[in-house]
Specification:
By secondary structure, this protein is α+β, with helices and mostly antiparallel strands. The protein folds into two domains: 260 residues, 3-Layer(bba) Sandwich (FAD/NAD(P)-binding domain), CATH 3.50.50; 185 residues, Cholesterol Oxidase, domain 2. Helix content is 29%, strand content 23%. Strand 14 and strand 15 form a beta hairpin.
Amino acid sequence: MNKNIDTKDIRCEFLIIGSGAGGSVASKYLTDLGKDVLLVEEGNRYSINEFKNSISKSFLYAWRNGGITPVLSKSNYGFGEGKCLGGGTYINGGLIWRTPEIILQKWNKIYQTNIFEDSNLKKYFDEIENILAINKQFINEYENNESLKLIEIGKKNNIKVVRVPDSINSSNDENKLTLGAAGNAKNSIIQKYIYPSEKKGLKILTNCRAEKIFSDKNKVKKVMVKINDKKTYIYADNVILACGATQTPMLLKKSFGNNFLKSELEVHLNLRIGVKFKEKMQDREGLMFTRQIQEYLESGVLIMPTSFNKNNFFSSLAKLDNNQINMIEKEIDKYSSFIIQLSSLNKVQLNNFFGNTILNYNLHNEDINKLKNYFKIFCGFLFDTGAEEIYLPFKKKFYVNKNDNLGEIIENCLTKENIEMVSVHGMSSARMGIKNSNKSKFNLNGRSFDFENLYCVDSSILPTSTIESPQATIMAVAKHVLENNFN
């Protein structure tokens, strides 16, 4: 990828740092305008179907820190993010949710604006869904059994279960959709945004990490990068940050000092539940789930299945002994897994320690109480629809069956010290705002308060958590930023 660029003296009109949802939109928009655009990506470039049959290889090569970045916490907690061309969009499940109306209303209220009215963002969402060919039609062939369970739960309990909007175009054995939709299974960002832009003149540098931004008065002058571990400088008229929720704030801290930005990362907590049902659940491995419980969205809680894979399922049951694992494997087709996702009240603290990113987190007591409530509700629903055993995301006392006292186990065992969780959605770590502060570094059009040619288009600038998967929100806000600065 780097052979056509003279790395001794790199100059461009637009430098985009990061190739995920926001960076891809910026690349397409500016290239379509005929601009001189250079996209740099810290990770490598992989083919569309590079990891179609290997979760472990995907973790090793396409995720930061080999899959999960540990978070310093009383809980067992890890944070996952992509590090390759396409960023998080390369490894995710291809879910394209519009920003929930309650979130847009919240943002408008915070800033006393109408920028985030659904009517203002609709044209961006329409365009995104058109380019990615979002599935809005019900396809019975692809309805997995876990999704059918949610439909049954919804009907029995009169709760809201919705169809999942996704960019999946294949769910065959070639593409197991466990930790993101592999390769040709989805209409991906790199297929629909990056590759077409490259044909129009977009230049791409992979294995290129931005190390420091240099400024003169109120303008960014150059960015120091390492290309295959070799240091060089890129001189750009405009710099667009799209590094992601952890890397954008870290780059700003390394460039302008730790006090430049108070970096707090808003996250969704994902807690996985393993379930054994009476009937066979896994007749076709790798189908993407198609349903989600949204009854509790206003409380920041979503419930959904995960696409089932035996190896991945067992990785969450390492606490079991060999005999227990062997017993499960004999009836593995009866097992499924689900996620309870919660928008956390507390934020992950991002710290720059000698150039390394250190994450700290403390689970809020209100979140613990909320999780207890929804675990009781959902596990009760599962037992009511044929579940025989449930494996909870606890270090100890994680197994319950339909004859156990579910409420008592959850009440006593769902504690900070006993819980296991991950996050894959980070947001609002260098947020937009209406004034310059150590929390808000960009205005409502995504332009830096401090430097007139510095912009941000990734999840960092989102005002708050989106509750839902943020990819479409990031892309829509990125388009808003671009149109209002470079139209």
